[in-house]
Each structure stands twice: as structure tokens, then as C-alpha cells.
Amino acid sequence: xxxxxxxxxxxxxxxxxxSYEYKDLEIxxxxxADLASTVAFSLxxxxxxxxxxxxxxxxxxxxxxxxxxxxxxxxxxxINFYMSDFFLQxxxxxxxxxxxxVERNKxxxxxxxxxxxxxxxxxxxxxxxxxxxxxxxxxxxxxxxxVETQYYVNDLGRQIAVAxxxxxxxAFATDKKGDHAVADVYIAANRxxxxxxxxxxxxxxxxxxxxxxxxxxxxxxxxVVNKCLTGVKETLKGLNIKxxxxxxxxxxxxxxxxxxxxxxxxQKGNVKLDGTALLLQLEGIEKExxxxxxxxxxxYTTRDLAYHRWKSNxxxxxxxxxxxxxxxxxxxxxxxLALLSVKAPEYVIFAFVSLPSGSISTRAGRYISxxxxxxxxxxxxxxxxxxxxDDLDETKKPEIARIVGIGAxxxxxxxxxxxxxxxxxxxxxxxxEKKGAPFVQYSHARACSILRAAAAxxxxxxxxxxxxxxxxxxxxxLIKMLSKFEYLIxxxxxxxxxxxxxxxxxxxxxxxxxxxxxxxxxxxxDEHRKARLALVxxxxxxxxxxxxxxxxxxxxEM
Length: 558
Prior knowledge:
By secondary structure, this protein is of the alpha/beta class. The protein has 3 domains: 82 residues, 2-Layer Sandwich (Gyrase A, domain 2), CATH 3.30.1360; 241 residues, 3-Layer(aba) Sandwich (Rossmann fold); 180 residues, Isoleucyl-tRNA Synthetase, Domain 1 (Orthogonal Bundle). The protein contains 21 helices and 14 strands. The strands form 4 sheets. The chain has a 5-stranded parallel beta sheet with strand order 7-6-5-11-12, sandwiched between helices. Strands 1-2-4-3 form a 4-stranded antiparallel beta sheet. Strands 8-9-10 form a 3-stranded antiparallel beta sheet, with helices on one face. The longest helix is centred in the middle third of the chain and has 24 residues.
């Protein structure tokens, strides 16, 4: 509904501005109104008049017979708009009927995320990538796009070659998940190579044979990569994340598409030979892009170009979720793709997650695996459930602990703007008293509890209620907040800032709890009880929906 309210604000503003020339209506959210326009500021510069005077003039030319706008007023240089009672009533009707959905969008989007090396388990750094990517995919699907999620598997890098080389010298542990067993071999192999550098040639030979498509070498690689990916997929499933497609880098080399990209860049770009390596100079970027090594093997960035050209033919829009260490790569990728006449993807660059004790490194064996993190969070959540709900059946406690624990982890990774660095702290992440996922989940469970109690008393929420009775400030503010969910979905589908969803979830839960504190529901008189039960039901629906977009389960009891 908020989208419709904004559309009506735009319509009446345009009519009121008929005698002015302007570039933008400058409509913004405001703490002092439901929406506001700052257009008088820019017009003041053009027309040499005071902003306050222009704002007042605009309001006098505004149509007064509106559906969703109650009234508009000039407040100094601002033009403030307020929602009508009809808007509030229609919001509740739509939510209860399940009709509050954003306008469906056309087009296919491929979003690539996670794409961790197949040399070990996901760690907390990978989790931020995976969860940001998954939330964005959920937002875009809810916004009506056809979305495909991809995991780009680096099966050609030196790390994988080291793991394959190590697997030929030592056995995988049989009592561990595949990804953890591969990590043990990779770490041990790295240590051996540091002590015996004469084996480095064997690693290089593996890389060359794999790119050339040597059957025996390909089978050795596939055994290691698939073993690792099986474990990674299991971890992602536990986090409520699923990729539609796993794409192997090696396929682009063996199919000849990488070589075709190199040939085309040599024809269209500024390429020079440095020894036997090929370097591409890109306009505006100081560092040259190596497109082929001196030994003839390809590089990650060159293979990435082939991958993006392949993707571009399968969709209307590409989105890549990259770590900050890929910032230069993304710039080079954009420039090189332009030479290939391929539209560049949209990038969501996220800052790193570090530990209080320092950085994360799989090679050095200094990392907290996602599996370890999940186990610790579930354990702590179970302790909280046991402490607070000794009345629960023992079979339900682990289930609720899992829902709360995974929710807390997912929320913690997405609540901060992607460009902000996170120092991951166990105590902070596992504090279920903070206003994170458990707070939102509890609000949903509270709404469910109220509705169950009403039904037990024989007064379930139904369609016969008078929404005009909802006049308390906390009631009105909650309805307005509920109306903004699909508007927010549309915004995030455009600006790709998933932390706004987490912020909205927390604020919605706060508004619902304020309403519950100040407005009796079950103990209200019959007519107010009916109206408030309808509002509780609407809050339940939107709390469930926003948790779903965050990839977090909405429990009916906690």
C-alpha cells in the first residue's frame, strides 16, 4: 500500500508543479510526516524565491480530493503528506486477504554468491557472502523477478591443485565431513610444500594437465572437488541456503571459451607481451590485467570473463556478491567485459569478517568453520530455551534452539551494511537478548500466542471488525509500518542493500511490542478486541514474511 500512497503523492505534486520547471520531485521519508518533498529547495535556487514561499505556493495548487492522502501542508520549506483513514483501512484489508504484494517484475536475474574455494569448509568469512547473497535472492524473488542463484566453483586455482596433490600422498579422514577432510589434507600439503619446495613443480604440472583435460588428472580433481562440495552443500542446507546451479571454472577452459576470450582481447584491447605472459592495459586502471601466464595456463580473471559472457546470454541482469579483496578485480572485469561487448554485472562488495584475535586463513588452519559456529550457536540457544521454557516437551527444545540459533547467525551477518567491516564476536552473536532475530521471532510467536488464546476463548480474528476504532498512536504507527514492507522490498531490489530488511524487521517488532504494551487485546471490549485481533493477525503475516525474506524461520512458540 505504501507504494500506492507514494504514487498518489507523486501524482498530486506533479499537478501542483504545473507552472514550475523541475528535474525531480524529491520525495523522501520523514520523521515529521508520512512522506515529504524537499523540491522547494531546488526550485528556490532556480526561481530566486524563498523555499518556504514556494512550498506554500505548491500546496495551494494541490488537488484536495485524494484517496490515500488525508492532507498536505507546507512546513517551512518542506511539503508534508499524511495518510488518509482509507489508506489505513485498505492496508489491513489487503494484508488479511493476502493481497499486499509488490508489482511483479519481468526479467531473469542470475546472482552469484558464496563461491568459496573447494579446499575446505565454509568459515565465518564465507558466511557473510552466502547470507547476503541468499537474502538478496529472496528479495528479488519476492519482487517478482525470475532468479537463479549460482555457485562458481574454482576448480583450477593453485589451492585446489595443492589439495589434489596432497590427496595423492595422504588419505582423507573417514570420520569427518568431506569438506573438513579436504581441509586437513590441504593444510598438511601446504606445510609439506613449505618444507620441501622441490614438490612445487609437481603441483604446477597438475594444473597444466587439468587444464589440458588429461582424463586421469580430471578424475583426481573431480574426486577432491566433489568431496568438498558435498560437505559445503550440507552446511548451506543447514543455513537454509540452496544454490540452483554449481558452475565449474574448468569447463570454460576445456571448452575453448577462455582461449576465445583471450584471442578477442588481443584483437580489441591494449595487450602486450611481458616475457611470455600476456598483459592487458585497461583505461583508468593502473594495474595491468594478466590474461595468460608465462606457462600458458589461464588465470581466474580470464576464466571469470568467459563465465560472465556465458551468464550474460542466460539472463537480463547479473549480480555478483564479492569480498572487498575483489574490488580491483571487479573494476578490471567491468572494463574487460566492455571490450567484449558484454554488460557488466552489478556488484555487492562486502567488507571482511575478522576474529578478535586476527584474520582468517584456511591455508594456515586458522579459521572458525561454519559448522563449528552453527553447533556453538545451537548449543547456546538450547541452554536459553531450557532456562526459559521448562514446560516444553523435550522433543521441541532442540527444534526451537535450531530455529533461534540459525536465525541469530543469519541476522548477525546481514544486519550491518555490506561495506562495513565486522569483527565477529561469539558473545555478541550468541546474545539472544539483543534486538536481533530472536527478538523478531519472539514477536511473531507472541502474535501467534495472542491469536491462539483468542480462538480458545471463542473469539478468533475474523473479517467482521471496524478498523476505524484503531485510533491509538501505537495502532496507527503499527499499521503504517506494516504498509511499508513491499515498498521496502522494491527499494532493496533496486539498491541491493539487504541490511535495510534486517533493520525493518527489528523496527516492525518494536512497533508491534509497543502496540501490545499500550493496547489491551484479549481484555478489550468486544468491538475493540475484534479490530485489534485483526491488527495482530496482520502483524503476524508481515513478521512471518520479513523473516522469510531474511531466510529465518518464524516459530509459532518460543
